[in-house]
Write a structure and sequence with these properties.
The complex is a heterodimer of chains A (201) and B (527). Chain A has 201 residues and is an alpha+beta fold. Chain A is built from seven helices and eight strands. In chain A, α4 crosses α5. In chain B, 44% of the residues lie in helices and 18% in strands. In chain B, α8 packs across α12, α9 runs parallel beside α10 and α15 packs parallel to α16. Chain B starts with a helix and ends with a helix. The chains are: A alpha+beta (201), B alpha/beta (527).
């Protein structure tokens, strides 16, 4: 993989379009789920290479992060991760459940709800990617971790890893929550994905 | 039945397999048992008619099938997938079993999906109970804190209110002792006087304790004369020691400076507590007080160390544990009265003064209590002086300069008015009294005074308002700049609002200390 590929505006635009439509679908599902209108801002796309150790924390601006992680495999192999600052995750849970959720009351059932939400968000993005790029992808069961910063950093810092960072804000009623969807690929896997994008452009 | 089906039948959760048209291909024993159906009844039936899923769940099922990705249906958002009724009045309060459901598309092109259902009813109930417990705990904590604050306020208020009648008690006992009395009468008056002081000490301890609890105990350092402080403090206990035949000795190292920069009153308070204890617990032998000094260097501050050694009964190792905690009292053959707060307060005070208290003692070997205080940071001194500057001119005497002052005493307690009248009259001063702010205002409009002593909490017109009006010339120019002395059960620094801002020159705390009153009189006479 070359850094030139990552600088290619066509590649970036392709990811942006995939993300925009995918997250839009997720928002529709979430609106139905919450019974409230869920608006999602147009996402921004960034690429993060191995070795940029502080990138994740610089992005999320917090050391306490709730993550939902789901691996996918098939024609493209990678890991999709939804990252929310803990405060943001609590806000989101509160909005989804229609009641205030405090950190000390963040029980198993609230975690289950966030896992479902993460599954929808990831499904929207990766599902749309597989549709647009005509990829056959299988998924593992998603997992959730209350403090997942360490896990994300470990994945992102693997030799040759490239991460596509999709940042967008979820707005439910008057509250905004910043979310980060990461697609983490190995070097060869990312190269295969880029080839696929070039082939359909 | 093949091995996989046997394994699935033994699983403690539900498993269903549906085909591309949502027809049930397989249901394990858990599902059959919970649904009360036979396998034959379920196989081939439609999952939609069995579960009656919401449009959202249906959409998720379609997406899962189309995209081949798992779907999670959380209990918190959906409650349940399979409608499995719970007994009426189930302990959970739910009508149906609460479930976490995972729908996983299976490999292959026939769009089969495996549905796994986990019963989380008891988890939800546990979760709810835990949250309720957390809420109860939080609410209990808030109640306890509120009650603690109320207790502190009550203690402070009641202690303050006790000081007012004690003013009469101690003051009249002093006046009585200055009269012709026979031996019995003198004994009675002395007992009233000493009991009054004992009660006053208890009240002071309680006030200090409530301040410590509120984190409001403050140190006000100033230069004080070390030898004078030591001698004065020890002198108070000499009569008691002499009565018991206990030798009370004081020695001060030659290196101890004349003056030391720390809160002299609090230094005296700690020392008084330790010497009082030593005299109280020692029935024979001696009590020795030794004062030493260590010069500071670099960041180490100058330090005073006072050792109070006695030949009393000593303290067991059990007694030493927790000795400096609140409400600790030692076992003693004779009942010793006190709150058990003295050593606790002493330690807090020493720590606030940059030192500490420690004890060495063994049963039968006497005790040595040592306390240290460091010289305060010079910047602290400015705290008190940094109060708003006096905005009123110094007090002035009326024109006929004699040593006999005209004094107006304003207090709603007739006892206090009479007491102050007696104390001042005995010194040759002319005293008028007023029982409230309006009456005082009338007096001030009629004739000039040299000194006005006023309680701050007066009916109709508070002491603060009276002072403010006076300084604004509301009662004429004759008394506008008269010397003003406030009277309160509180210390000057505990009164909200700056007394000097209202034009007060002096403050007397109830019960009135005759020495402090004499100081005020002297300052006015010498003005």
């Amino acid at each position: 993989m070359t850094d030139t590929s990552l600088m290619d505006p066509v590649i970036k635009d392709a990811f942006l379009e995939i993300a925009n439509i995918g997250i839009g679908k997720s928002a529709a599902s979430m609106s139905q789920l919450a019974g409230k209108h869920v608006a999602i801002t147009i996402p921004s796309i960034d690429f993060v290479r191995t070795g940029e150790r502080d990138s994740f924390q610089l992005m999320t601006g917090t050391s306490s992060t709730v993550i939902v992680e789901q691996r996918f495999h098939g024609e493209v192999v990678g890991t999709a991760i939804l990252c929310l600052a803990t405060s943001g995750a609590l806000k989101l849970a509160s909005m989804l459940l229609g009641e205030e959720v405090h950190q000390d009351a963040f029980g198993e059932m609230e975690q289950g709800a966030l896992l479902e939400l993460g599954n929808i968000m990831i499904g929207g993005l990766v599902g749309n990617m597989s549709n647009v790029l005509h990829l056959h992808i299988g998924y593992d069961i998603p997992e959730m971790q209350l403090n997942g910063t360490g896990k994300v950093l470990t994945l992102m810092q693997k030799e040759g890893a490239c991460t596509v960072v999709v940042n967008s804000n979820l707005a439910i009623e008057s509250t905004d929550v910043s979310s980060f969807l990461l697609l983490v690929f190995g070097e060869n896997e990312f190269e295969a994905l880029l080839d696929k994008i070039r082939s359909v452009m | 039945m093949d091995m996989q089906s046997e394994i699935l039948d033994a699983a403690p959760y539900g498993t269903l397999v549906v085909d591309g048209g949502n027809g049930i291909l397989f249901a394990n024993q858990w599902v059959l048992r919970q649904m009360g159906r036979s396998r034959e009844e379920l196989i081939g039936s439609d999952i939609e008619s069995l579960c009656n899923p919401s449009p959202l769940v249906l959409r998720q099922l379609v997406l899962a099938r189309e995209q081949g990705r798992p779907v999670i249906l959380s209990q918190r958002l959906h409650g349940y997938f399979l409608p499995i009724p719970l007994p009426v009045h189930h302990v959970s309060g739910f009508t149906h079993m609460q479930q976490e459901t995972t729908i996983v598309p299976l490999a292959g092109s026939d769009h089969r999906m495996a549905i796994t259902i986990r019963d989380v009813t008891s988890v939800v109930v546990g979760d709810k109970r835990l949250k309720q417990l957390q809420r109860d705990l939080e609410s209990a904590r808030e109640r306890a804190e509120r009650s603690d604050r109320n207790k502190g306020r009550f203690l402070a208020m009641i202690s303050h209110d006790i000081r007012t009648p004690m003013n009469g008690l101690i003051g009249y006992a002093e006046l009585l002792l200055d009269t012709e009395l026979d031996e019995h009468q003198r004994n009675y008056a002395e007992t009233i006087h000493s009991s009054g002081h004992m009660l006053l000490n208890l009240v002071n301890d309680i006030l200090d304790y409530s301040k410590i609890e509120d984190g409001k105990l403050r140190i006000r350092p100033k230069l004080f004369d070390v030898r004078e402080a030591v001698e004065d403090t020890v002198a108070v206990f000499r009569p008691d020691a002499a009565r018991k035949g206990v030798d009370l000795k004081v020695s001060v190292d030659g290196l101890v400076p004349v003056s030391f920069f720390q809160d002299g009153l609090r230094f005296r308070q700690v020392m008084a507590n330790l010497v009082s204890n030593a005299v109280k617990f020692t029935d024979r032998g001696a009590v020795g007080v030794h004062v030493a000094y260590t010069k500071g260097y670099g960041r180490i501050l100058d330090r005073l160390e006072v050792a109070v050694a006695d030949t009393g009964p000593g303290i067991s190792s059990e007694g030493l544990a927790g000795l400096f905690e609140a409400y600790q009292q030692l076992d003693h053959p004779t009942p010793i009265k006190g709150t058990g707060l003295g050593l606790f307060i002493s330690r807090q005070l020493c720590q606030l003064m940059g030192g500490d208290v420690r004890v060495e003692s063994e049963l039968g070997q006497g005790s040595v209590f040592r306390f240290t205080v460091s010289s305060a940071d010079a910047q602290i001194e400015s705290c008190e002086d940094a109060q708003p500057m006096e905005v009123y001119p110094p007090h002035v005497r009326r024109t006929d300069q004699t040593d006999s002052l005209r004094v107006l005493v304003v207090d709603d307690s007739p006892t206090n008015c009479r007491l102050l009248g007696s104390l001042l009259g005995r010194l040759g001063h002319q005293v008028d009294s007023a029982s409230d702010g309006n009456e005082a205002a009338a007096c001030l409009s009629l004739k000039p005074y040299d000194l006005v002593i006023m309680d701050l909490l007066l009916p109709h017109l508070s002491g603060f308002d009276l002072a403010k009006n006076l300084r604004q010339g509301a009662y004429g120019e004759g008394n506008r700049w008269v010397a003003l002395c406030s009277l309160s059960g509180l210390e000057k620094n505990d009164i909200s609002g700056s007394l000097t801002d209202y034009g007060f020159h002096f403050h007397l705390r109830k019960p009135i200390d005759t020495l402090a009153l004499n100081e005020v009189i002297r300052a006015v006479v010498e003005a």
